[in-house]
């Protein structure tokens, strides 16, 4: 898929989930490199425009930002267009492979936290969190999962179907039932769109309510996050932009009077204090260790990007 169709598919949520959109962005840049036939200067300009198009598609998940910058790293210093092309392709392949390997490693590490008989809550649809649950089940552990519906897009149905396909005992609940089921839960596993340098989690709207209910009920709250979900910009005080989507996603035409305003933020922020641990491919870390792991995993270059 080319850059503009990829950006459209991310914007319309045909491609969704922080890991998937990052890999899609990387492969769109790879495709651009494969098809480009002009000189180095023209290539640099096209890559720059492609970067903007991709980054403008959805604002919240830093995975896309980190993925795009990982693919473009070092390309400007390559000299001619052929060397630049090779660099983009090699970087994209490395990022995609690293991203897929990270989900496998998180699944392996996270599965150790699950015990037979556990009651687990998950929110929305995270491939990293689902990976943990599927791995634990594949290891022979038997547990129950409550999956929230996740209005308005209802990504919880994807989670419920994925878990049911794997043979996991799963119950779908509406989002407002989360506090009722938390009384019988042992653990929560959710994914991440962005983790800030001070360990806060930005994930699907409602995650912070799940965390609040978990804390009240003394239920462990785990975040499953590849380290490229860690945001270098937050270290310098930048705020994470919370995407707001259209009213049509919440109500159909004619369902409410036109003067009724609709507020539809699609992510929210959960403070570090509500998080027991972040399960990354580099290991299980405390929210307080995000900065150190971020520098080690993303490399110092990730902190020296100009113009963003
Ligand atoms: C999806 C969502 C997921 C994270 C992590 O939101 O919030 O929890 O993106 O997913 P949306 P993954 O459906 O709006 O993209 O673990 O697959 O990267």
Q: Which descriptors would you attach to this protein?
A:
single chain, Rossmann fold, 308 residues, 2 domains, 43% helix, 7-stranded mixed sheet, Four Helix Bundle (Hemerythrin (Met), subunit A), alpha/beta, 10 strands
Write down how many β-strands occur, each being a DSSP E stretch of 2 or more residues: 10
| Largest sheet entry | 7 strands, mixed
Shape: globular
Between the first and last Cα atoms, what is the distance in angstroms? 25 Å
Corresponding CATH architecture of the largest domain: 3-Layer(aba) Sandwich
Give the strand line-up of the largest sheet: 3-2-1-4-7-9-10
> Helix content range of the residues, please?
40-55%
Question: Your description of this structure?
Answer:
The radius of gyration is 20 Å and the shape is globular. By secondary structure, the protein is α/β, with parallel strands linked by helices. It has a 7-stranded mixed beta sheet with strand order 3-2-1-4-7-9-10, sandwiched between helices. It has a 3-stranded antiparallel beta sheet with strand order 5-6-8, with helices on one face. It folds into 2 domains: 3-104, translation initiation factor eif-2b, domain 1 (Four Helix Bundle (Hemerythrin (Met), subunit A)); 106-298, Translation initiation factor eif-2b, domain 2 (Rossmann fold), CATH 3.40.50. It has helices at residues 3-11, 18-35, 40-55, 62-72, 81-111, 127-138, 156-165, 178-182, 207-216, 290-298; strands spanning 119-122, 144-148, 169-173, 187-190, 194-195, 201-204, 220-224, 267-270, 277-280, 283-285. α1 (3-11) packs antiparallel against α2 (18-35), α3 (40-55) runs antiparallel to α4 (62-72) and α5 (81-111) packs across α6. It is built from 10 helices and 10 strands. It binds ribulose-1,5-diphosphate. Ribulose-1,5-diphosphate (RUB) binds next to α2, α6 and β6. Residues 16-19, 61, 124, 126-128, 153, 155, 191-193, 203-204, 266 line the site of ribulose-1,5-diphosphate.
């Amino acid at each position: 898929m080319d850059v503009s169709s990829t950006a459209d598919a991310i914007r319309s949520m045909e491609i969704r989930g922080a890991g998937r959109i990052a890999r899609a962005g990387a492969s769109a840049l790879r495709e651009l490199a494969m098809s480009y036939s002009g000189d180095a200067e023209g290539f640099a300009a096209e890559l720059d425009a492609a970067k903007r198009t991709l980054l403008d598609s959805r604002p919240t998940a830093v995975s896309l930002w980190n993925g795009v910058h990982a693919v473009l790293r070092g390309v400007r210093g390559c000299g001619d267009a052929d060397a630049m092309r090779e660099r983009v392709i090699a970087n994209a392949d490395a990022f995609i492979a690293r991203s897929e390997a990270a989900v496998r490693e998180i699944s392996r590490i996270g599965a150790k936290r699950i015990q037979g008989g556990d009651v687990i809550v998950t929110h929305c649809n995270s491939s990293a969190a689902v990976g943990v649950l599927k791995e634990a089940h594949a290891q022979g552990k038997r547990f129950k999962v409550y999956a929230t519906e996740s209005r308005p897009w209802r990504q919880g149905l994807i989670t419920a179907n994925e878990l049911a396909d794997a043979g996991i005992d799963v119950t779908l609940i509406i989002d407002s039932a989360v506090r009722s089921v938390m009384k019988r839960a042992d653990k929560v596993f959710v994914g991440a769109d962005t983790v800030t340098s001070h360990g806060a989690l930005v994930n699907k709207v409602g995650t912070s309510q799940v965390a609040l209910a978990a804390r009240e009920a003394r239920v462990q709250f785990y975040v499953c996050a590849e380290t490229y979900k860690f945001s270098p910009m937050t270290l310098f005080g930048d705020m994470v932009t919370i995407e707001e989507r259209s009213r049509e996603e919440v109500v159909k035409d004619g369902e409410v009077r036109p003067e009724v305003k609709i507020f539809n933020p699609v992510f929210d922020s959960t403070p570090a204090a509500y998080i027991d641990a972040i399960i990354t491919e580099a290991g299980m870390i405390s929210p307080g260790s995000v900065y150190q792991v971020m520098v080690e995993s993303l490399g110092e270059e990730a902190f020296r990007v100009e113009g963003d």
